[in-house]
């Protein structure tokens, strides 16, 4: 077939919270690599499974374009991509294959500590800063709340103190960052952790067998961990 491939390509985060645990998990599945000089591409040695090291935000797009077959990425990033695609009316090209048990946190609405929170309706007419506009718009729509979404790529938690927003929608794990910014979490939009993302349709070439082998090994490794 045109474009038939006999190697699998997995995208993982180049540097960040998920990089080390993702590599360790794949290594525990028996994979090993010969690293390229620039370390953006790692050529699989023990099995024909290569790694592409990228920004986590690029992973859903690489899957959608078929550049990579699998990706290890936060459910939050995958869900944000899907929410944005749904708004554009385009269909989703990848799905969550398996939760991986690391990188857990939640996407939450947080407001200034002094706010006496009564529910999502409190956000009516307010301005909310976030790096997850797709998921926030979806949640606001379901809650029937009309609010302004301000998309920021970083330093979301400081926005209320700067007068840029009334509330934020951001990832929370320990909650220390919220406390440091005199904010409190009031609603959870999504519980998230690192997931294996993969294709919606099965492979029609040699990758099918390779993918089955990898998923079997992954199940074995994850079972030992619980
Ligand atoms: O460079 P690149 O774009 O690849 O990385 P990134 O900076 O976008 O992502 P990175 O490495 O910070 O996070 C990767 C993934 O880790 C996220 O998409 C989540 O799925 C997951 N994860 C788990 C987290 C956290 N925990 C977390 N605590 N991502 C971010 N945070 C932030 C949080 O927003 C807060 O600002 O860390 C800060 C500290 O959190 P507290 O609550 O413990 O204070
Ligand atoms: Zn990122």
From TrEMBL:
- Whichever gene encodes this chain, its name is hisG
Indicate how activity is controlled: Feedback inhibited by histidine.
Picking any one GO molecular function of the record gives: glycosyltransferase activity
Q: Name the chain's protein.
A: ATP phosphoribosyltransferase
Protein location: Cytoplasm
Work out whether the entry's keyword set contains ATP-binding.
yes
UniProt keyword Amino-acid biosynthesis, yes or no: yes
Please list every transmembrane segment annotated in the UniProt record, as residue ranges. Answer: none
Name its species.
Answer: Luteimonas vadosa
Under which EC number(s) is this enzyme classified?
A: 2.4.2.17
| Any coiled-coil regions, as ranges | none
